[in-house]
């Protein structure tokens, strides 16, 4: 489908599905509030909810955020809002905010599909209002005409809506380093996050070489990345399905962790992690790690990305942000 730049701009069609941003340049990003059926409690989980998977959509929420309210909840609603949350609207039986730009309904996983003390929820339904009708129709047409390689990771229907919603919160793109003697690999991930100061979670595709490499080495480094390296970092995505290579095949690292694992050359900071255990949910293998060490490398702004629907919502509402297109 060929459209001139001016027509695409008018129709709200951005050139890439996921738009890179500097996390620090988006202080006005959405807040995320959790509600449960039959309760008036509203819990802010903006800074602690972890996006861990997209088939099914997986959100982990540490119990510190909600205590017993969270532990006993079979279903929750996450409302994505700009500004203060003012309950006053019912959505699918949950308290919500009338001006929410998106909502997710999720169900808690059974005990055998989560780590002790951590609640993991799977998406059931999502609804968003990022785009006005004309722009929404134009983007759906572009999506329908875009050919994607066949993959079990492809998402459609309402699951696609849930994924778009999850990516209205900027998700940091970090780089994992695995090393085994003189072989190593760098690969990016945006399905990850810390559990306080002691533990860390990340998620990879079951059956991928990156997944196998993490299980093999068990000790790795994950690095926050400077936004200026967005093209180079994105290009590492192909390494998820590559074997480890000699260290000389990679851009030289200027910093190593305490265990001698190379830190990604464009890192701003890093954590050294040791694998404890993992669980499989859908196409994802979720890894739980013990945080062994942390380090700072350089100053810089953190690479993250958002879905193009939310990026266009920001443009429509005159919210400033610098977008980086690959």
Quick one: CATH class of the largest domain?
Mainly Beta
Flag low-confidence runs.
none
Radius of gyration over alpha carbons? 20 Å
Percent of residues in helices:
10-25%
- Provide the spatial order of strands within the biggest beta sheet: 14-15-19-18-16-12-13-17
Number of helices: 7
CATH architecture of the largest domain: Roll
Mean pLDDT: 92
Amino-to-carboxy terminus distance: 19 Å
Largest sheet: 8 strands, antiparallel
Alpha-beta classification: alpha+beta
Q: Please count the beta strands (DSSP E, at least 2 residues each).
A: 20
What's the helix-strand series? HEEEEEHEEEEEHHEEEEEHEHEEEEH
Count of individual domains: 2
| Beta-strand share of residues | 35-45%
Would you tell me which CATH topology of the largest domain applies?
A: Pnp Oxidase, Chain A
| Overall 3D form | globular
Description:
- This protein folds into two domains: 30-169, Pnp Oxidase, Chain A (Roll), CATH 2.30.110; 171-304, Pnp Oxidase, Chain A.
- β4 and β5 form a beta hairpin.
- The chain has an eight-stranded antiparallel beta sheet with strand order 14-15-19-18-16-12-13-17.
- With 326 residues, it is an alpha+beta fold.
- Helices cover 18% and strands 38% of the residues.
- The mean pLDDT is 92.
- The longest helix has 13 residues, at 133-145.
């Amino acid at each position: 489908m060929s459209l001139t730049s001016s027509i695409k701009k008018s129709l709200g069609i951005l050139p890439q599905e996921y738009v890179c941003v500097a996390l620090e340049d988006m202080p006005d990003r959405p807040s995320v509030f959790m509600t449960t059926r039959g309760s008036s409690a509203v819990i802010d989980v903006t800074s602690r909810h972890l996006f861990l998977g997209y088939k099914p959509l997986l959100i982990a929420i540490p119990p510190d955020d909600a205590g017993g309210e969270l532990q006993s909840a079979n279903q929750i609603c996450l409302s994505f809002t700009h500004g203060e949350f003012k309950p006053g609207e019912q959505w699918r039986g949950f308290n919500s905010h009338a001006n929410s730009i998106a909502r997710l309904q999720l169900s808690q996983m059974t005990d055998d599909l989560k780590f002790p003390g951590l609640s993991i929820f799977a998406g059931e339904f999502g609804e968003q209002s990022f785009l006005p009708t004309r722009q929404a129709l134009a983007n759906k047409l572009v999506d329908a005409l875009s050919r994607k390689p066949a993959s079990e990771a492809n998402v459609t229907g309402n699951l696609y809506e849930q994924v778009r919603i999850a990516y209205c919160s900027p998700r940091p793109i970090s780089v994992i380093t695995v090393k085994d003697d003189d072989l190593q690999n760098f690969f990016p991930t945006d399905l990850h996050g810390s559990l306080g100061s002691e533990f860390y979670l990340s998620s990879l595709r079951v059956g991928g070489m990156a997944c196998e490499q993490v299980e093999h080495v068990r000790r790795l480094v994950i690095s926050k990345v400077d936004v200026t390296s967005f093209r180079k970092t994105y290009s590492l995505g192909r390494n998820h399905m590559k074997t480890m290579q000699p260290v000389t095949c990679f851009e030289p690292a200027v910093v190593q962790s305490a265990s001698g694992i190379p830190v990604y050359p464009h890192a701003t900071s890093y954590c050294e992690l040791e694998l404890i255990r993992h669980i499989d949910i859908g196409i994802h293998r979720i890894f739980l790690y013990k945080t062994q060490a942390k380090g700072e490398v350089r100053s810089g702004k953190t690479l993250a990305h958002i879905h193009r629907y939310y990026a266009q919502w920001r443009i429509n509402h005159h919210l400033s942000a610098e977008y980086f297109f690959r």
